[in-house]
Design a protein that fits this description.
CATH class: Alpha Beta
CATH topology: Alpha-Beta Plaits
Shape: globular
Structural class: alpha+beta
Strand order of the largest sheet: 2-3-1-4
Helix content: 25-40%
Largest sheet: 4 strands, antiparallel
CATH architecture: 2-Layer Sandwich
Length: 97
């Protein structure tokens, strides 16, 4: 059963955040991740307007999604977006029905 990363992001320092986003596609691919939505047009229907970037990534399984997030490669990439508050991110992994 496939699973999805659903993320909301706020970029505070685009140059530093780019160091993260440049690394992530290759890491996702290693775990079978497929980007379905990243950035682009959006409309907030309910909730806070804190986040202005939305990401949906499909993985072949819940375990692959968790494994990608917990991998040394991803954790190293994530350190770039965390450095000096370059970005704020919420990620949820949800299994499909």
């Amino acid at each position: 059963m496939v699973a999805y990363w659903v993320a909301r992001s706020k970029v505070n320092n685009p140059d530093q955040y780019r160091k993260y986003t440049d690394l992530v596609p290759g890491i996702l691919e290693k775990f079978g991740g497929k980007i379905l939505a990243r950035g682009g047009k959006f409309k907030i229907l309910e909730g806070p307007e804190k986040f202005h970037r939305f990401i949906v990534i499909e993985f072949p399984s819940f375990e692959k999604a968790v494994g990608c997030h917990d991998s040394p490669e991803y954790l190293e990439a994530a350190a770039h977006r965390k450095k000096d508050g370059a970005g704020e991110l919420e990620i949820v992994i949800v299994e499909s029905i």
